[in-house]
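G., the chain you wanted modeled:
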Amino acid sequence: MTSTVRTSVTPRLLNKVPAITATFWVIKILSTTIGETFADYLTVQVGLGPLVTDGAMATLLVIALVAQLRTRRLVPWLYWTTVILVSIVGTQITDFFTDILGVSLYVSTAVFAVVLAVVFTVWWRQERTLAITAIDTPRRERFYWGAILTTFALGTAGGDLATEALSLGFRNGALIFGGLILAVWAARRLGLSTVLAFWIAYVLTRPLGASLGDLLTQGRDFGGFGLGASVTSLLFLAVIVVLVGREQVNVNRHGIRAKGDTPAVSPRRDYVWAAAGAVAVVAAATALAPAAVPAAATPATRSGSGSGRVDPLEADATSPIGDLRPFAVIVDDVAAKTKKDDLAGATARIKDLEVAWDDGEAAMKPASPDDWHTMDSAIDGALTAVRANPPSQASSLTALHALQSTIAALDKKQ
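Predicted structure as tokens:
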């Protein structure tokens, strides 16, 4: 009589992560920026709101992640689609803790750092490696995507903490985080572990991408290019599609030569493609950036009704978080429409306030986070009241008057 001993064999896969090349990092940074801008676009400009946007993006991520986990080899377009969705959801997780639950960025940053350390510890104990060149079993891939999601959440919280606590702003943030990534590269050349260098750089690309995204989306009066979230997202997505398309063609043409390897890529050719992607972004941003608006034509010098009236409050251009005159103009318009019982008109006009406030966040929030949150809470109250179903004239006027008082109080602090 013979007995058969059954052994559990973990299925081996071809490595599921692209080669870590210059093109990889360009795509990673661009996808990170989309995570910052696209969710804002859906939430504010499209008007889906945070709950609908969060639910839709989480659902798409689950679908993409299941498809990614079911493949047995690298599929570039599917891999990067998953990364983009992880970027968006990772950003939303941090924003949920900060904006909805009111959790301090110090706390959320510490929590995500601990979670990432736990993921790495368990991963190491189970697999004895954290190398992304060996994502060749289903369990390793699950660890990998858990770490990736956590790095995006940590990068968002840590980046926001740095820019707010240190009042860096998006321009200084881009320089500082870019410099830190270069320092990691230099340390790698001097002997730093490849695995450690990769994960440190991966976390740092999140705040770098967010700073670059803010630089392009913020208005010219805030020191940005003024492209807005929609144009920036489309621009970056177009470059990503081209670069990922090239990777997909290489995989289709050459395949994966052996487990743990990706198609042979000429380093020189890869640098050319990466540089071309970066140049395309800069050139398009420069060409699409709107011209600076003369001071006499800014919204601060006229009311939304076109009367040309300038209120005493609007004549003062200073506050701890910057020029509040454009917001005061919109609030005055909404209040005027509400007093006339034109609640439909007030609802339509307050959309301009939501968009303008969202557009100015990256520049205004670091200047004085506490004052920004005070204004943000007052704006949220006005938005909630005016958009109530059904809206109440009395409740709307109360919330709008509270917002006007908040603007006046901030204006007096100077």
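The radius of gyration is 24 Å.

Shout if anything looks off.
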